[in-house]
Structures are given as C-alpha cells and as structure tokens.
Amino acid sequence: MSIINNKVIEKALNDFFGFKNFKGNQLNIIKNLLSGKDTFVIKPTGGGKSLCYQLPALISNGTAIIVSPLIALMKNQVDTLRGLTKESNIAHVLNSSLSKKEIDNVKNDIINLKTKLLYVAPESLIKKENIDFLKCVNISFFAIDEAHCISEWGHDFRPEYRNLKIIFNKIKKVPIIALTATATEKVSIDILKNLSMQSARVFKSSFNRKNLFYDIRPKILNERSPQYISKQIIKFVKENNYKSGIIYCLSRKKVEEISKILNVNEINALPYHAGLDSSTRAKHQDAFLMEECNVIVATIAFGMGIDKPDVRFVIHHDIPKSLESYYQETGRAGRDGGEGNCIAFYSYKDIEKLDKFMQGKPISEQEVGRQLLHETTSFAETSICRRKYLLHYFGEYFDSNFCNKLCDNCKNPKIEVEAKNDAKIILDAIFEGKEKYKFNDIINILIGEKTKLITDYRTENLNSFGKGKNKSKNYWNSILRQLIINSHITKSIESYGLLKITKKGYDFRSSPESFMITEDTDYSKLTETSNFNSLKNEALDNTLVTMLKILRKSVSKKYKLPPYVIFQDFSINEMAIHYPTSIDELKNINGVGNGKAIKYGEEFIKLISKYVSENEIIKPEDMVIKSLVNKSSIKVYVIQSTDKQIPLEDIAETKGLSKIQLIKEIEEIVNSGTKIDINYYLEQYIDQESQKEIINFFKEDYKNNSIENLIKEFDGEYEEEEIRLMKIKFLSDYAN
Asked: Residues 593, 650: one domain?
C-alpha cells in the first residue's frame, strides 16, 4: 500500500486500460486507497467506479477482495479484466456457481500470488472455510461494490450486506473502499456508520449525466387504444434499429407480453425476470451482451449485473418506485459517454397501484415508501428542468441553463408565471401550522379540503385554510415543489417528510421577491405524446465503423467475450478517424493500450490497412502525432517553469502563446489533477485582500461555474485573467 507515485499510476492506466487520462477524481481516489486510507466513492453510472479499485488492485501486492451482489456482475467484470492481460488467472470469482475443483484452482492461484482481484458475494464471504482461507492470504484491501445495498434507506437494501464489517474484522485489518452510483445524504451516512468508516475520505462526483436525454411521456390507456404504449415503443425501437436498449416493466406478465409484441413486429427482443430459471436468464443476458439480440425487456432484476457501455436507450413502460431506482436504471444508458435516450411512460394510476402494494407492511416502511413515491410523482409531473429536479434530489445544485435541451421540459419549455404572492401564502401556511404538516396536507389546507388529519387537528380554524381554493391543486403542487427545489423549504427525512422553512424561506416571507414558476403538467388532460428526437452521432467514416464492428463481433465470439470487452464504441470510432495501421499506432487509440493492442489488434490493423489502401485514404497521423507531442511538451515545460517561478509572460513568450492561452493551458493541467503553484506570480498581480475574497467565494459557493458566470458574480470587479488565475490557485490548493 505504498505505491502512490503519479507516474506509476498513470503508466498502469495506459498499460492496462489504454487510457491517457483519468476521469474526474479517479486519480485522487486511487491515491487515497493506495496510501492505506478508507475511501467512500459516490460516482454516477458510467463515471468509472470500477477502475477506482481495479487499477489499485492490479499494482498492489496481494489480492483485493471485491464484494459484489450478483454472480452475473462478477462474471462480467472478471471477463473484462482477463481481456486486459494474457493471464486469465489475474481475476477470479468465488461463489456458489463453482465446483469444488474450480474453488481449489481459485485458491491455488491466490496462494501462488497470481490473482489480483477476487470477487465474492456476501453469502460466500461469511462461510467459515472461506474466512479461514482468507486469514492466511495477503489481502491488499476490501472493496464493496453497490454499497447502497448496505443501507435500509437505499433502493436495493440487502440485509446480508450489513454484516460485512464484522466479517472483515474476522479476516484482516486492511483499508476499505465502498462505492455506489446512487446515495442520498441519509443513505451515505448509514453506509459509513455501518462500516465504521466515519473518518473515511468521501469522494462525491456530480450526478449529472450530460449525455442522457430525459423524456416523460403520458401513459394513455383507454378502450380505443389498448396497444398505445406498445406502438410507441415499437416505433421508437425501429427508428433506432440495431441499437442496444433495455425496456423495464414492473410485472413479469408485462415483460412477457411486451417481448412477444416486439418479436411479432420483427424486433429481436428477449425477456428477463426472476420467474425464468437461472440458465435461461444467463442465456438471455449473454445474448444481449454478445449483441445476438438488440433489446432486453426486463423487470428490475436486470441491469445491475451488466457492464455494457453501449446501451443507447432505456425505456420505462411503468414508472419506477423511487427516484433512486429511476436514476440507477436510466444510468445504464450511454455509459461510454455516447448517445443515451431515457423515456418513461407515466400515469398516476400506476402510482396508486404501487401505493396499494405497500398495504400490510409496517407503518414506518409504508411512510418511507410513500415518501419515495411522492418524489417520483413530483419528478414525473414537474414542468421545470428534469435534470435540475433529479440532481436536487441527490443534494446537488444545477443551473438548468446548462441542460442543453436534453430533457423534454427544456426542449419544449412552458410559459412562466409570477407566483410571488402565492409562494408567500404557502410559507405562511407552513409557519401557521407550526411545521407539522407534509406536502399533501399543506395543499389540502390551502384548497380547503377537509381530510381526517385536518379535522383531527382542527386545521380548518387556521387563517390559511381555504385561502387558495380559487386555484387548482396542480397549481399549488407546482409552487410548493419549486419552493423546495429553490431551498425555501426542506423536507425532514427523519420526520417522514414534514415541511420545514429554511432561512432563505424566512427571508422571503419577510421581504417577498419575484418568484417565477412553470405550472406542472396535468397528465389527465393529455392526449398525445411529446415529440422526441434522438441525439445525433458525430460524423465518422461510418463504412469503416460498420466493418470494424462486424470484425469486433467475430473476434468476440472467438474469445467468447462481449464485443465491448474487445474494444468499446469510442475506440472503434477513434479508429475510424485516425486509421491506425500498425500496433504502435493502435496503442495510441483511446481505450486500447498495450495489452489489448497485442492481444486483439492484428486483425483490426489488417482490415484498416486494406481499407485505407483500397480507398486511397490519406491518414491524418502526422498531424495527430505532432499535436500530441506539442501538448505534452508544453505541459512539461509549464510545470518545470512554474516550479522555477518564471513569470507567466516569459513562459508564454517562449512557447509562442498569448498570456490568456497559457493560462488556459495551465487550467487544463490543473483540471487533470496536477497541482501548479502560481503564488509567486499572484503576489505581484492580485492583492491579498482580493485573493482572500475570491477564495472564500469559491469555498462557499463554487459550483464549477463558467468563467463568464463567475465574472458576473463579482459584478465585473475582476478581469477574466484574474478569475482564471484564482481558479487555478483554488483548484491546486483545495482539489489537487
């Protein structure tokens, strides 16, 4: 656990995974783990969680123990890891699917120091013979994938996960890394407490998946159009022919029905649900991974067990039970950063059905379940930016101006209306009710509806009772939700959703200001769906892309691996831009690296060479190589020069850059995780008082805003250069 040298880690990234740069905060996570510290990672699907423990395991002494909830997920990751090297025993699974002979082989590989990662289920880890064996093994660290399974507040709680800390203590005292793609603040606290990891360093990445398009469509079911939703799905899938997609349904019956309808309409689809035997489920999953079928129709039993990066759409035939589930399931689209379309069909009748399913459960469980359902309803019916709503739910601020029309509400914006006075009426009602009412109770008070709760508490005597009866329930819903999103009101999780007024809300009550809202969509009145356009793929040599994908499929069958394990789509696309015709050139393609180039590259090189020759293509390799070399040399020169405290003007002049160009180069270096000390320059350029003011602002309110927005925040008091330089200092001092 002593390897924390950046160069060693970056070389391993390129050698094993073929990547030149880390994604987001991966490098800092890896360094924290390698330095022997407990680590908690909250990173969205597609953000590169797996690499955060796979790379440290590959370069550490001993074997890392990876706790994973599903056999399919373990197999998937082991196949991927084995594709990175010539050694098939670099990663193993240890679970109930293995024979005694296979288990003995796994243990021998671990004893002989050949295995770097061992994937286990909690049920296997708890067995005495496995505990006794692991006590005698050199373990580098424990990793817990899908860590939200630990929390009773998580959307996929697994009771056996709550015993992991006890098991770890029985085996060995080594660092722990816990990782999840979805965790609200309450779930995070529960995970850390259960694992006794309160002192762990927490790395929380943005939940924003910039490439996903969120679209909620009305689910219109009537006697005239019983197949309405099926027609919508068929139309969309046919428009996206040959693309991989998942369609989620809440019931097994609906899964079978939809998959049959798709097949009748010449769409290659397979069902997946817990009612199928394990061999059929495995067969259907493999067919999807190997691209022998394009679409899987599934219950929520499907998805966590796959690591397929090129799923292009996720359709929810039925709205999920919680926003965590929705986020997790939609997150399976576009994991490679490419196109990802997320469509959900919504009807309030589905919410009522889900509510009925909770009857008979303990009261506290019903309260939590209904609170989660209420959030899902609010998300489905809101007319504000869906990305903003979703990220707010996970405790993250988002400026809807940056949605880039990648949700149906931003693509087709609704008219805004002034609601300052009505917002104050809501805050007055909450205040007058002594903050002891929930969302729906406040709405009922305002419209003057007498419920049992209102009668019991004699709420009809409040001044607020019936004060908003001249406006619709939908209208008051909209204002209340937007007051919550804008932090005028919070929901108390511990008190099952009681509404509390924040300081911002109290300030608004005493001095109301403009409060513009968009009214929520009334789904009961809609008769047709919104228009939907797929995201555009970037322009490539599409003929070569097709040929390379056909070859990839052939190679994948030979190695009995999913096609994306050979090369991911973004690597194929890059090959169709740069036309690599040698192994050395192929190594430079993003996502390839030394291991894959040697193992799989020969056939791809032959195909590309032949294609280039037959089509008389002039390769852009010289230009590409030059730009890479120049970029690298500038980076090295800048780091060395700032270490020597050379004035920025002199550095810029030497490299033939303007000062602002140099500053942008330094920003790129700092954003990649390298610390650059420019204090020597700032002392002459910006006075201490100004520096302190800007740094304090960044500490309190830094949300990765654009430079333009930051200049506006300071009312133009500071120039662009000054803001950029202070941003470099802030990131170097506090992020890198």
From this structure: no
